[in-house]
């Protein structure tokens, strides 16, 4: 009887070797940033819908684009790949059509 | 992490005008993104089999996560959110294959072995063995293969995998045990047929 080529104790090590984590490409961060920016546009349309319900202070803050898209410096991911993420400051209000319209915007963007 | 409502005017900060709860939420999401981008991308790559579509599914995963992040945080009760994130990726990858009527197993065969810092002889031997492991993984059922990807690529615990797959801890332990057992048999059989 021949020796088995794969010893049981080696299998888990081989699996870890074969399935080692993959570093994401740097361009992925830019893609996510771009798509989230698109969502910002969808959210901006929502602004006109319920802007009259906001206080003057909130309106002033929301008119400033810096409050909508906050660039985050390129972050080292996994020590190798640098990437960037834009976190969108989208005001969400859980009410009626506003939320549904926003959700539809997201669906269209990622659809 | 803060749980204050973004609709509460009292939560509006004096800084940039955005609600304090919302800023905290975005910071938490940023941390989640940085911490788990590689996990999500690795999982997507091994499920999808090519970088281009893996990027698409990774991107969609984080967008879906962003939509539901506040609720996920609220309902996680302090537990890690990685299983939730991987579950989103898992569902999107399933949609990907369903939409394209592709089997994920076909893609795994095409996965390029990762570079190894070994000598030439060991590289050749290593690559051959790795291809055999990949072929063995291809022959596993989807749920067994997914569990092994979560375990060996992402280093997830049985409990994390159970949460990601929506199974009990016990069922997940059995799933992984059977997956390894089947793979071992597949590789033994492949080795025997080569001799």
Strand tally of chain A: 2
- What's the mean pLDDT score of chain B? 81
Could you say what the CATH architecture of chain B is? Orthogonal Bundle
| Oligomeric assembly | heterodimer
Q: Which CATH first-tier class of chain B would you pick?
A: Mainly Alpha
The CATH superfamily of chain B turns out to be Winged helix-like DNA-binding domain superfamily/Winged helix DNA-binding domain
Number of helices of chain A: 4
Count of discrete domains of chain B = 1
Write up this protein.
The complex is a heterodimer of chains A (111) and B (195). Chain A is an alpha+beta fold. Chain A has one domain. Chain A contains four helices and two strands. In chain A, strand 1 (69-77) and strand 2 (81-88) form a beta hairpin. The longest helix of chain A has 24 residues, at 27-50. The radius of gyration of chain A is 23 Å and the shape is rod-shaped. Chain B has 195 residues and is an all-alpha fold. Chain B has a single domain, classed as Orthogonal Bundle (Arc Repressor Mutant, subunit A), CATH 1.10.10. In chain B, 73% of the residues lie in helices and 0% in strands.
């Amino acid at each position: 009887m021949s020796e088995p080529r794969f010893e049981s104790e080696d299998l888990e090590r081989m699996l870890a070797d074969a399935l080692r984590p993959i570093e994401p490409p740097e361009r992925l961060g830019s893609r996510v940033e771009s798509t989230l920016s698109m969502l910002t546009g969808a959210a901006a349309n929502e602004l006109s819908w319920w802007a009259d319900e906001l206080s003057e202070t909130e309106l002033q803050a929301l008119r400033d684009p810096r409050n909508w898209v906050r660039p985050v410096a390129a972050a080292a991911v996994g020590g190798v790949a640098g990437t960037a993420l834009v976190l969108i400051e989208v005001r969400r209000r859980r009410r009626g059509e506003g939320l549904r319209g926003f959700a539809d915007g997201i669906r269209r963007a990622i659809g | 992490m803060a749980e204050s409502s973004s609709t509460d005017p009292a939560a509006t900060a004096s800084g940039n005008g955005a609600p304090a709860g919302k800023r905290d939420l975005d910071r938490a999401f940023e941390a989640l993104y940085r911490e788990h981008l590689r996990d999500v991308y690795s999982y997507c790559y091994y499920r999808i089999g090519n970088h281009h579509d893996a990027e698409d599914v990774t991107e969609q995963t984080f967008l879906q996560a962003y939509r539901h992040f506040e609720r996920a945080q609220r309902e996680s009760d302090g537990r890690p959110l990685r299983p939730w994130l991987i579950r989103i990726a898992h569902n999107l990858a399933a949609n990907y294959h369903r939409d394209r009527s592709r089997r994920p197993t076909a893609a795994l065969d095409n996965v390029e072995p990762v570079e190894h810092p070994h000598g030439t002889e060991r590289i050749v031997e290593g690559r051959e063995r790795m291809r055999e492991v990949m072929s063995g993984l291809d022959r596993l059922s989807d749920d067994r293969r997914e569990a092994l990807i979560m375990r060996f690529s992402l280093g997830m615990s049985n409990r994390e995998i159970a949460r990601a797959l929506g199974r009990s801890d016990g069922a997940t332990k059995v799933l992984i045990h059977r997956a390894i057992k089947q793979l071992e048999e597949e590789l033994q059989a492949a080795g025997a047929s080569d001799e």
